């Protein structure tokens, strides 16, 4: 019970004591009627205000729920975009790894053939073959350098993928704006 209601009840009881606590003995006067009408209108006004407050609270709750739903939809869309980007990067990474493996195998094969050719040319003391083998050796070293550059690019791509994964994890874990407040 609120203090205002309790005070009103106590005032009524103290006023009724004059008449022995009997309501039927209280004389009905114009002032009493005005007071009753005033109390009735104030009570109705109070009820109307309470109803308005409840409606405003419902509207605010609905707005907050709609905002939360909108934010969840935005996060879902953002997650889908991040997943697409991540999958594209993963595909690119697997292709780059395959390419690197092929380049490495080609480089190793070329170096092996070059060494064999160089050994054969040295045994036969054929200067033309030695020069050709030397050219092949330089080409193999250039190819190995290119393979190393490709491997570096693949490593950078792997870092990018890891970064996307962490961003995606942040999106999933990050609190909504309502929780952050």
Give me a quick take on this structure.
The chain is built from four helices and no strands. The chain has helices at residues 3-16, 30-124, 127-173, 177-180.
Write up what this structure looks like.
Residues 49-131 form a coiled coil. Keywords: Coiled coil. The protein has 181 residues and is mainly alpha-helical. The chain has a domain at 66-174. Helix content is 88%, strand content 0%. It has helices at residues 3-16, 30-124, 127-173, 177-180. Helix 2 (30-124) runs antiparallel to helix 3.
Record the SSE blueprint:
Blueprint: H1 3-16, H2 30-124, H3 127-173, H4 177-180
Helix pairs in contact: 2-3
- Describe the global form: rod-shaped
What is the helix/strand order?
HHHH
Strand content: under 5%
Strands, total number:
0
Given the helix and strand composition, which structural class is it?
mainly alpha
Q: Helix share of residues?
A: over 70%
How far the N terminus sits from the C terminus, by CA atoms, comes to 33 Å
Main sheet overview: none
Number of separate helices: 4
Look at the structure and give the mean pLDDT.
Answer: 87
Give me the Rg, rounded. 44 Å
Oligomer: single chain
Low-confidence parts: 177-181
Coiled coil: 49-131
Keywords: Coiled coil
């Amino acid at each position: 019970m609120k203090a205002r209601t309790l005070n009103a009840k106590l005032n009524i009881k103290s006023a009724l004591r004059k008449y022995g606590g009997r309501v039927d003995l209280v004389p009905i006067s114009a002032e009493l009627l005005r007071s009753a009408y005033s109390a009735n209108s104030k009570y109705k006004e109070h009820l109307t205000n309470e109803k308005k407050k409840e409606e405003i609270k419902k509207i605010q709750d609905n707005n907050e729920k709609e905002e939360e739903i909108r934010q969840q939809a935005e996060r879902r869309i953002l997650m889908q975009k991040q997943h697409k980007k991540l999958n594209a990067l993963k595909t690119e990474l697997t292709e780059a790894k395959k390419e690197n493996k092929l380049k490495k195998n080609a480089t190793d094969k070329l170096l092996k053939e070059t060494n064999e050719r160089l050994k054969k040319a040295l045994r036969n003391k054929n200067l033309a073959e030695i020069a050709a083998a030397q050219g092949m050796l330089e080409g193999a070293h250039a190819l190995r350098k290119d393979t190393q550059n490709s491997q570096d690019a693949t490593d950078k791509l792997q870092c990018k993928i890891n970064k996307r994964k962490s961003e995606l994890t942040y999106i999933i874990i990050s609190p909504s704006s309502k929780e952050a407040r």
